[in-house]
Design a protein that fits this description.
A: mainly beta; 4-stranded antiparallel β-sheet; B: about 110 residues; 5-stranded antiparallel β-sheet
């Protein structure tokens, strides 16, 4: 089975722009979670999607949003980018929501200048 | 408040040594995850456990529910084990709360 894929792998954006990141889960996995990793804050949960519904959201401003499609692929969007949004964005998939092992993608490294 | 704390923050070892990384968490956890992150960012899930002990190769993870404590052990450590090890608690809200990570360096 192919692993979790994320596109793009690297991205440079300017402050004020918006960005969309994509995540394709392992085939058959229906839950996708998104995480942000920064040197200062470490890993933090952004949101989780299951069956096209957002099940939970972390403590991030409304500029961070996401969605999940019927094929379980997920996108996250960040509008009005700030310098502090520079981070590694990771998605992880699992078969279902709940206590299941998560399989992580390689991440998208976003740099905001 | 749901919290996960790890120790030590940094760990150096000689090849062959037995290594222990500790993780403590607040009440209410439904599962505890151990993750490994190599330079470059990729994260691999090592273990998910809610009780007892799990073993995979040279890696062993234990959890003590009463003490709210988990440990990750590496036997016969090798330089390729050098990575950041992260524990994360699942508080039954379908989101993980992460520890700050332990940076392990194993020297030949």
């Amino acid at each position: 089975k192919a692993g979790v894929t994320q596109t793009p792998r690297y991205l440079i954006k300017t402050r004020g722009q918006q960005v969309t990141l994509s995540c394709s889960p392992i085939s058959g996995h229906r839950s996708v979670s998104w995480y942000q990793q920064t040197p200062g804050q470490g890993l933090q949960f952004l949101f989780e999607y299951f069956s096209e519904t957002q099940r939970n959201k972390g403590n991030f401003p409304g500029r961070f949003s996401g969605r999940q499609f019927s094929n379980s692929r997920s996108e996250m969007n960040v509008s009005t980018l700030e310098l502090g949004d520079s981070a590694l964005y990771l998605c992880a998939s699992s078969p279902r929501t709940g206590d299941y092992e998560q399989y992580f993608g390689p991440g998208t490294r976003l740099t905001v200048t | 408040k749901n919290e996960v704390e790890q120790s030590p923050q940094n760990l150096t070892a000689q090849e062959g040594e037995f290594i222990t990384i500790n993780c403590s968490y607040s009440v209410g956890i439904s599962a505890l995850h151990w993750l490994q992150q190599h330079p470059g960012g990729g994260i691999v899930s090592l273990f998910m456990l809610s009780s007892g002990k799990k073993k995979h190769g040279r890696l062993i993870a234990t959890i003590n529910i009463q003490e709210k404590h988990s440990s990750l052990h590496i036997t016969a450590s090798h330089p390729r084990d050098s990575a950041v090890y992260i524990c994360a608690g699942d508080y039954n809200t379908d989101k993980l709360i992460f520890g700050t990570g332990t940076r392990l360096q194993v020297f030949p």
